[in-house]
Amino acid sequence: MAVPMAGLMVVAIAAPVLAGPNVSNTSGTGRSIYGEWSGDGTYGYVFAGEESNYGGFADIYQEAGEWVLCESGTPAPVDKDEPTPKDTTPGDEVYGFVGTRTYGYATKLHLTLSRRLETGTATGTAELYTETIDECAGVYGGDPVSETVALNVTATGVGPLASFRGSGSYKIPSEFNGHQNYRGTERQATGSVDAGSAINATFTFGYMNQVTWTEHINS
Questions:
Q1: pTM of the model
Q2: Whole-angstrom Cα distance, residue 100 to residue 66?
Q3: Looking at residue 143, what is its pLDDT?
Q4: Where do the H-state alpha helices sit in the chain?
Q5: Domain chopping of the chain, boundaries
Q6: Is the separation of the CB atoms in 185 and 32 below 8 Å?
Q7: Neighbouring C-beta atoms of residue 34, cutoff 10 Å
Q8: d(CA 211, CA 208)
């Protein structure tokens, strides 16, 4: 969690600097479940989190399909920002992805973890968008089908419970002084995610974690 905590610190530091003289002491808690899955032409992940000051949220993604050998005369992308079928051999053979990509998000998510991360659940409502892709035919999505679905994530801890802690500081003499401390626990996990008819998967890798932090800023 060192990187997320550092990111939060940068955000917290920037606002007081712009706002002028300020002293603040804040604290919070966070918890999350992450899982990813792959196999048989499918790859996906879900990240569900809950932060004491902002509530729960989730990000989810899945692509299902295959890379196929395109016939000669594959259409070029519509513009430079769109993906290009990949050349995977030294010759003239060009491969493109054919399948679907589904992505979405959830807000007002409710996430629960047991104290030692034996189990975890996340439930809420997600907005999903599914695009049909055929790179060999010049179809790169852009017109997704949307749906609102129930999102359910479950996780079971495996292996030992790990703990972490750390601190950070940032100081500009006579102008700014901020420091932060954090600590938490994490555990690898198995689990699954269900999001309507589009996504129903079992994790091939996952973890749960929880963290608490305090922060002091004087500017």
A1: 0.78
A2: 10
A3: 86
A4: 2-19
A5: 33-162+190-212
A6: no
A7: 21
A8: 11
